[in-house]
């Protein structure tokens, strides 16, 4: 199962996104859920770097282990907030379609 943890500050702003695991939906190389989550995560990082002036304090990926960690140490602008909300929506759509057997999204305020 893929677990996605969205950690937020008390004001509701994202502090980090951690993705861990493999969905187990299909064998490696044929797993459409893992592929979709990976594509959304890579697109999120690339979009923040390309379309905003905001910076992530950490972007760490372990492809074999199915782990991606994105951290925000400084305040970020409205564009990054929109990209993060869009990322969350995309993941929620996958979870709604395929169920929590394959992907679990945790939205946690600190």
Beta-strand share of residues: 25-35%
Category by helix and strand content: alpha+beta
Portion in helices: 25-40%
What separation lies between the terminal Cα atoms? 24 Å
Number of strands: 5
- For the record, the count of structural domains works out to 1
CATH fourth-tier homologous superfamily? Cysteine protease Prp
Treating each run of at least 4 consecutive H or I residues as one helix, how many helices?
2
CATH class: Alpha Beta
Mean pLDDT value: 93
What is the H/E string? EEHEEHE
Strand order of the largest sheet: 3-4-2-1-5
The biggest beta sheet reads: 5 strands, mixed
Q: Write down the overall geometry.
A: globular
What is the C-alpha radius of gyration, as a whole number of Å?
14 Å
Walk me through what this model shows.
Helix content is 37%, strand content 28%. The protein has 110 residues and is an alpha+beta fold. Helix 1 (32-51) packs antiparallel against helix 2 (78-98). The protein is globular. The mean pLDDT is 93.
Summarize the structure.
With 110 residues, the chain is an alpha+beta fold.
Task: Compile the SSE list and pairings.
Layout: E1 2-8, E2 14-20, H1 32-51, E3 58-62, E4 67-71, H2 78-98, E5 103-109
Parallel strand pairs: 1-5
Antiparallel strand pairs: 1-2, 2-4, 3-4
Helix pairs in contact: 1-2
């Amino acid at each position: 199962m893929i677990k996605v943890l969205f950690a937020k500050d008390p004001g509701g702003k994202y502090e980090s996104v951690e993705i861990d695991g493999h969905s187990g939906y299909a064998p490696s190389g044929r797993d459409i859920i893992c592929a979709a989550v990976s594509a959304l995560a890579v697109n999120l990082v690339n979009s923040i770097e390309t379309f905003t002036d905001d910076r992530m304090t950490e972007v760490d990926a372990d492809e074999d282990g199915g782990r991606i960690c994105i951290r925000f140490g400084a305040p970020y602008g409205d564009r990054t907030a929109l990209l993060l909300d869009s990322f969350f929506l995309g993941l929620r759509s996958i979870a709604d379609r395929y169920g929590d057997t394959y992907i679990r999204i945790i939205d946690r305020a600190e």
